[in-house]
Design goal:
Helix content: 25-40%
CATH architecture: Alpha-Beta Complex
Cofactor: Co(2+); Zn(2+); Mn(2+); Fe(2+)
GO molecular function, one term: metal ion binding
Catalytic activity: Release of N-terminal amino acids, preferentially methionine, from peptides and arylamides
Low-confidence stretches: none
Number of domains: 1
Order of helices and strands: HHEEEEEHHEEEEEEEEEE
Mean pLDDT: 98
Enzyme class: hydrolase
Organism: Coprococcus eutactus
Length: 253
């Protein structure tokens, strides 16, 4: 990380296109999900879609990560490694985190989906996690500080009786997948950097049905809830503007 970058209009347009392609990738993955599908199959499809648009997957070989899509099931919070042996079952929830590189610029987003018929509690978690993102985004305004985003996310999660993972955070996005500033999902002691128009950041609440505590598995990547409670993840790359923030990782109508 080499400081916070303010993106030019040309850079923003490139990130919009990266985000559009990433949104299409998520749509194709969502439509394909079903019981009996392996997490490896999800990864293969995701990479195929990304490359079909002339893009590269942001995650493949990033710091040694061996796949294009992070596929995290049930108590897995993030960075699950796809496997031919991990088969989705009816009632599972699965978080898909993906990134796209378009002409040198990244977009990063995540979604959590139910497989078949999930429990009401799982549905509640997924909807609340999505809303946590939107609560955080509303605080992502020029003149506010990074801490304001975390306050908004944590406050909503607390209202819902849910846990907020504190060992993992959002981040800046641009020429690099991870740039400054870090964007925590909780109230930090320091205010953090002031948000300015032209900043592009990934807001990504990781929320659990239980405690905030997490553990890393022996593969060095997969993060799970310490109490094995269900976890959900919802993320978008957004642009800070002089008015409302803009989601870049979406399809333009």
């Amino acid at each position: 990380m080499k400081g916070i970058s303010i993106k030019s209009q040309e850079e923003i347009e490139l990130m919009r296109e990266a985000g559009r392609i990433l949104a299409i990738t998520h749509e194709e993955l969502r439509k394909a999900l079903k019981p009996g599908m392996s997490t490896y199959d999800i990864d293969r499809l995701g990479e195929e879609v990304i490359r079909s648009y002339g893009c590269e997957p942001s995650f493949l070989n990033y710091q040694g990560y061996p796949a294009s899509i992070c596929v995290s099931v049930n108590e897995e919070v993030v960075h699950g490694i796809p496997s031919k042996d991990r088969i989705l079952k009816d009632g599972d929830i699965v978080s898909l985190d993906a990134g796209v590189i378009y002409k040198g610029y990244h977009s990063d987003s995540a979604r959590t989906y139910g497989i078949g018929e999930t429990t009401d509690l799982a549905k509640y978690l997924m909807e609340a996690t999505k809303q946590c993102f939107f609560e955080g985004m509303q605080a992502a305004r020029a003149g506010n500080h990074v801490r304001d985003i975390g306050i908004a996310i944590e406050s909503y999660a607390d209202e819902c009786g849910l846990g907020v993972v504190i060992d993992l955070v959002g981040h800046g996005v641009g020429k690099n997948l991870h740039e400054e500033p870090e964007v925590p999902n909780f109230a930090t002691r320091r205010r953090g950097p002031k948000l300015k128009a032209g900043m592009t950041i990934a807001i990504e609440p990781m929320i659990t049905l239980g405690d905030y505590d997490v553990r890393w598995l022996d593969d060095g990547w997969t993060v799970v809830t310490a109490d094995r409670s269900l976890a959900a993840h919802y993320e978008n790359t957004i642009l800070i503007t002089d008015s409302d923030p803009e989601i870049l990782s979406r399809r333009m109508e």
